[in-house]
Design a protein that fits this description.
single chain; alpha/beta; Rossmann fold; 8 helices; 7 strands; 44% helix; globular; binds coenzyme A
Length: 264
């Protein structure tokens, strides 16, 4: 796999605000942005979860800040944005990676369970975009929402997350149109099954892993690096005319979920 395909210092001078734990997809994206020269604020509920990731970025020569905020609480998001701007002087890139999920049938899901996931994924994404707007519009910027593909079909046990991610896709398109004039581009990545992530641990029954891998057209699971590459591209000036796109990075998995024919 290609490890290094972008110019050095692709994002030098930029400041990124990345929500989600310091691990998994958003942890990888944050590190990749930092390696590309951006200064990065890592944001999630528990600062102690972020500090090791921030420390790893600093140890690699990058600049990183760990900021605690629950994306569901607008005041906390506003404070986290203010802290980032105080520390780094500006804001250019937003990555909305904070998400919550679990498997549960709709008939067993409580209204609060449904609302909690919608609040984290959808309202959290709006909160961060809204709170970042005044800073982003000063120089233009890039918003990258981490979506999913489960809302494209009727994915069982995912009523809550599918509804939330469908909302994220909608918000991506609306903000692309409303904020494009400020040179704020809003795009999304819809990752498929990515190895070594909380999502795979939570959502995939181990016995089904080989079966699922076989059904992915490219016959492998995604790697965090695959999402990092897509994120670097969409956040960089190479994508300066890409606005409102939802880039599926799944090896063709969701397209292959044919109801008429299966590879077996
Ligand atoms: N099945 C069904 N309902 C569940 C559930 C599960 N596995 N886990 C939580 N819920 C329900 C709770 O019962 C509660 O509803 P209730 O008050 O009607 O009982 C509601 O969801 C909120 O749960 P709570 O634990 O208070 O929420 P939280 O804010 O502490 O946690 C979650 C949020 C539930 C999303 C939690 O899983 C989380 O923090 N996840 C973060 C990481 C993550 O999910 N990553 C995956 C990315 S794909």
């Amino acid at each position: 796999m290609i490890e290094h395909i972008f110019a050095d210092n692709l994002l030098a001078g930029r400041v990124a605000f990345v929500t989600g734990g310091g691990t998994g997809i958003t942890g990888g994206v944050a590190r990749a942005l930092a390696e590309a020269g951006a200064r990065v604020a890592l944001v999630s509920r528990k600062r102690e979860h972020l500090e090791p990731a921030a420390e790893r970025i600093r140890a690699g020569g990058g600049a990183a800040l760990a900021v605690a905020a629950d994306v569901r609480v607008y005041g906390e998001v506003e404070r986290a944005i203010a802290t980032t701007v105080e520390q780094f002087g500006r804001l250019d890139i937003i990555v909305n990676g904070a998400a919550g999920n679990f498997l549960c049938r709709a008939e067993e899901l409580s209204p609060n369970g449904f609302g909690t996931v919608v609040d984290i994924d959808l309202k959290g994404t709006f909160n961060v975009c809204r709170a970042a707007f005044d800073e982003l519009k000063k120089r233009g910027g890039a918003i990258l929402n981490i979506s999913a593909t489960l809302q494209y079909l009727g994915t069982q046990m995912q009523a809550h997350a599918a509804a939330a991610k469908a909302g994220v896709d909608s918000l991506t398109r609306t903000l692309a149109v409303e904020w494009g004039g400020y040179q704020i581009r809003t795009n999304a990545i819809a990752p498929g099954p990515i190895e070594d992530t909380e999502g795979m641990k939570r959502l995939l029954v181990p016995a089904l892993k080989d079966k699922l891998r076989h059904r992915i057209p490219v016959r492998r699971f995604g790697r965090i690096r695959d999402i990092e590459h897509a994120a670097l591209f969409l956040c960089s000036d190479a994508a300066s005319f890409i606005n409102g796109a939802i880039l599926v990075v799944d090896g063709g998995q969701w397209l292959a979920t044919s109801r008429l024919l299966s590879p077996e």
